[in-house]
Every structure is written in structure tokens, then in C-alpha cells.
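Entry:
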Amino acid sequence: MPVAAIAVVAAAIGAGPVIAAVQGEPTLPARTAQQLLADAAQATRSGMKPMSGTVIQTASLGLPGLPDISGMGGSSPAALLAGSHELKVWYGGADRLRLALPGRMSETDLIVNGDQVWLWQSETSEATRIRGVDPEAQNKHATALPSATTPQQAAQEVLSRAATDTVVSVSNTERVADRPAYQLALAPKDGASLVREVRLALDGETFVPLRVQVYAKNAAEPAFEVGFTSVTFTPPAAENFTFTPPAGAKVTERAADEFSKQEQARQERERTLKDKAKVVGQGWTSVAVLPFSVKDLTANPSQNADGAAEDANAIAGALLRSAKQVSGPWGSGKVIQTKLLSALLTDDGRLLVGAVTPERLQEAAAS
């Protein structure tokens, strides 16, 4: 999507995948995998068309020994590690956007209408007006809340991996969000990858990505999926982008520059990590290697008043307790494996991460 999506925890929707594909008779013209890859790439580059819909993200990553994530705050990124989460989207253009994030007994809304930007949190009955917004650069001002993957963002990552080390197949019998869809299935050739298959559903009319599902090896259900459960590619009504704080609400103002500074700091951290990181291998089985130590896993609560730091520390502690001690010619360290990701934290201060087996991480550590 052309703007950063935001997400909070919604009510648990239930076990298993919540975005089911319905098989039916072929209704779409036959297209090759190469044609669909080109169509999908063009659709993601062209940007989002006016639309409205509901996105569901479901994660079952098999993270070992975690605390009860469901009890964590809805605005915590940790909450996205498990369960199902809902996001409602109305998109009328670069300067007209509404995102609604339902909770069990509350809702958080971001409303953008030109230079009028509001953040509404019903749980605390607080409305925040964001001043000094550049309507041409809304992306900068949606970063106050943790971001969630949309089908378009996930599809871009999938398409970037559709290289020579991938087996691609296609079908034209899917239905997603009650729309006929093509489905691309991308499978790594290298057996060291923990990913069995990635399925990418494209709208049969617009070729907009409607759903992405990631399957781990030997798993019948997706370890991760994100997709529309309903979508309409027509301009939303104007009233979706208007907001007036209700009577009795606490109204505050914040400068857009605050969010810009947060975004600049985030980008600087990313650049620092990228400069330090090295990559061993390529494609699905590439391994990132960067300087790291156990103390780097501990967040500073004073820098994050919303509880995200405490959540991160609890998760880091649980993961370290579940880690297995390993050693080899490369040295010694601790390894953690989930359904889709392995991480090796070496005693000499390196972190190796990849969607590969722990054995491949140890090979990378020795290289």
C-alpha cells in the first residue's frame, strides 16, 4: 500500500487459517507464471487504486517458550507474533485514508483528509490532531504505531525472491474475498530452506495482491498469512475521511515533525544494521550475519513508555531460555528455531539469522 499500515490486537478469531480459498470451476483466462509475475510486479509498482476492504493477518510461527502474548498491549509489535488481527482500510488517494483497528471493546482509527490528520483511541476516549502534515508525504506520519504487513507489502517481498532458485506454478480457480483470483505458488529448490511454499493470490481483474500465505515444511496450515476477507475497488464515500471528536473526548495536538523524527531515527538504525550486516548465500537460503550480543536483546523501558520495551524483554528472555547450546569448528553459541526462521547467537558476538535449518546457520558461521 502507498501508506504505512498500522495494527493493534483484535479479538481472537479462532485457530487455523481465517482466509480460506474456495475452489471452483476455472473462470479466468489462462496465464503463464511468467505473465502473472509481470502483472503482479506492475500492479505493486503502480500503487494502490481507490478501494476499501478488511485485511486479516494470522501468525502461527511456533515461537518456543513465549509468555502469554495475548495479554500484551494491543499497540505492542509483540502482539503480532501470534493469533489473528484485523485491519479495515478506506483509501481514496494519497491524501485520503482511514485505517480502523478493532479491539475487543475498543477501536483505534487513523483518519487522513488532506492536511487534517486525526488519531482516535476509543478505549481512552482520546483524539490526537497531528499538525503540520504534508499531504504529499503521508507515509511519514503513520509511524507512531507499529506497522503490520499488508498483502501488497508481503507480495513485494515474495516477488523479490522469485528468482532462478524457485519453482513457480499457477492456478486460476481461486476465490479470495469473494473475487476470482489467480494463485502463484513459489517453492524453494534448496532443501535447506524452512519454507515449503509461498502462495500469492492475485485479483483476476486488477492483479492486485489479495492474499499471501507462507507454509513451513511438513505443515498443512500456513505459518503466516495476510489477505483481504472483503475488498471493493471503488472510491470510498467522503464521510469515511471526516472526523469530529465526540463530546467529552480528551483532545490533544502533536506536531508531524515528531513522527518525522521517529521515522528518521528508525531509518538511521536500519542503515546502521545494513552497514554492519553481511550476507552468506543467496535467495531463499541466504543468511544475515551481524555483530550482536545478549545485552543487545534488552530494550530500555525509559525509551518506550507504552510497554513495548517490557514486552520485548519478556520475549527475548523466553527465547533465550528455550535456546539450545551448540558448538563446532566455528565456536559455540545458542540456536533458536521456529517454523520459518532460525537464529544463532554466537559466544564471539555474532547473530546469524535466516529461513534455513540450524545446520545451514552453523555452516555460515564457519565460512
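The CA atoms of residues 2 and 47 lie 6 Å apart.
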